[in-house]
Amino acid sequence: MDKTRNRRLGRKCIIIICLGLLVFSCKNDTQKPEEENVEVAVEVPEPNIEFGFNLDNYIVKRDTIKSGDSFGEILERNHVGYPKIFNIAEKAKDTFDIRRLQVGKPYTLLCVKEDSLEIPKSFIYQPNLEEYVVIDFKDSIHAYKSSKPIKYVEKIATGIINSNISETLESQGLSPRLAYKMADEIYAWTIDFRRLQKGDRFKVIYTDKYIDDSIYTGVHKVKAAYFEHNTEPFYAFEFTTDSVKGIVDYFNEEAKNLRRAFLKAPVKFSRISSRYNLKRRIAVYGYKVKPHKGTDFAAPIGTPIMATANGTVTKSERRGGNGNYVKIRHNATYETQYLHMRKRKVKRGDFVKQGDIIGWVGMTGNTGGPHVCYRFWKNGRQVDPFKQKLPEAKPISDSLKIKYLNYIEPIKYKLDNINFKPQITEKEVPEAPVIYQTNS
Predict the structure, then answer these.
(1) What distance in Å separates the CA atoms of residue 248 and residue 118, rounded to the nearest whole number?
(2) In terms of Cα–Cα distance, which of 121, 124, 149, 134 is closest to 95?
(3) In the prediction, which pLDDT does 38 show?
(4) Using CB atoms within 10 A of its CB, is residue 411 exposed (0-12), middle (13-18) or buried (19+)?
(5) Side-chain half-sphere CA neighbours of 213 within 13 A
(6) What per-residue confidence (pLDDT) applies to 437?
(7) Which of helix, strand or coil describes residue 317?
(8) Cα distances (angstroms) measured from residue 103 to each of 106, 148, 196, 378
(9) Which DSSP state fits 392?
(10) What is the pLDDT of residue 268?
(11) How far, CA to CA in Å, does 167 sit from each of 114, 170, 419?
(12) DSSP code string of 259-311
């Protein structure tokens, strides 16, 4: 009897122990952490894109055009044979004249990595920071022109004059180009910047230009400005009056044009070496009266000559004592002429805007030194421009005036709410890309 009971107790103990082990094992299984699928982030470097090519796929050789360099010599010393060079030049000539390579300008050669000789497959030339020419001959030969992405960033600047506007801007690290634009382009006929008063102050909304997001190329344009001179306010708002001809002017808050019809001089930073004088006597001619019907502006050879007003070129030629000259008809009343140019930039029939470069100062024709003889016609008769009551620039039409006033309303509100603080703020321009941002 006791033996039977002991066996039963033994079996119960064994069952209890087995159940305990089973429960413990299951508990351990449930507590065992599941293996997690850990995702490892692999940082993929951004491709090095320039000129429309992924430069990571090429051996890149950069250099600048040296004196004596030619397209053929550059390719020849990089293992391209002359028969192929000739073929490349022939195929590319409709897009770019390879003879126009300028000393000091950068170029890039792209070579295939697998090629031990590193023979170039593309030639890229940069005539300026923005534009470039690609001559590609990897498979077939083709050439094209393009430009790098451009971004315009809107900025705000304010200042209070202590001595002059240039020093005020310089103290804030701002471009002197901004001072030039306000003094020579916007307020040239309204404020004499040589006579600013201490305490005069200004606010300006303008855009800076960047190429490839990183290359700063300076002030692009002034969108709006407020200048307080002798406690008198002067507003200026940029507005396009003729989109076809690209005519842009600055107007005040009442839509009045801020400029005159004619610039004071056709060259900058010059001096008048001889004025209009109908009774001039010259020693070389035995002190005989030899009228001078122009105004001479002395300037170094190569100085740009500007059209003093909008108009159409009626003559662009070289003749006798005039040398190289350009004549422009501005309207039925006024014409101007520019003599003794080293080189002319415009041709007959071209429409030019005020400030456009039409040639460069030289010494062609009858001249004793480098200058431009500026001649001014009124109703077909040569007159002294400095004694004329010159008209203001063409006013806005009534229909365009309504559009202008609506356009400047939010800009003026923004300008009026800018505090006079020596600071710069910036934001990327929100307007349409066609106006403020371009991408190749």
Answers:
(1) 50
(2) 134
(3) 62
(4) middle
(5) 2
(6) 39
(7) strand
(8) 9, 21, 43, 45
(9) B
(10) 83
(11) 56, 5, 20
(12) SBSS-S-SSSS-EEEE--BTT-EEGGGTTEE--B-SEEEE--TT-EEE-SSSE
The reported pLDDT for the residue numbered 236 is: 96
* 63 strand-pairing partners: 107
pLDDT tens sequence across 188-230: 777 878 778 889 999 999 999 999 888 888 889 999 999 999 8
Amino acid present at 275: R
- Output the six-digit token pair for 14: 């064994």
| pLDDT tens profile 144-188 | 999 999 999 999 999 898 888 888 888 888 878 888 888 878 887
Q: For residue 8, what pLDDT is reported?
A: 59
* CA 15 and chain centroid, separation: 92
Answer for the pair 370, 301: CB distance below 8 angstroms, yes or no. Answer: yes
Distance of CA 406 to the CA centre of its chain: 28
Kindly list the distances between the CA atom of residue 141 and the CA atoms of 87, 107, 121, 274, 297, in Å, as whole numbers in the listed order: 9, 18, 10, 57, 50
Match 């900058």 to its residue by tokens: 268
Q: How would DSSP label each residue in 127-171?
A: SSSSEEEEEE-SSS-EEEEEE--EEEEEEEEEEE-SS-HHHHHHT
Residue 366: phi and psi, rounded to 5, are: -85, 100
Which residues in the chain show pLDDT less than 50? 1, 3, 32, 422-425, 428-440
In whole angstroms, give the CA distance from residue 215 to residue 7.
Answer: 96
pTM recorded for the entire structure: 0.60
Say how far apart CA 196 and CA 234 lie, in whole Å.
13
Give helix then strand counts, H and E, for the chain. 7, 26
Reading phi first (left if > 0) and then psi (alpha if -120 to 50, else beta), residue 417 is in alpha
Half-sphere exposure of 100 (CA within 13 A, CB side): 10
| Alpha-helical regions (H) of 342-437 | 398-416, 433-436
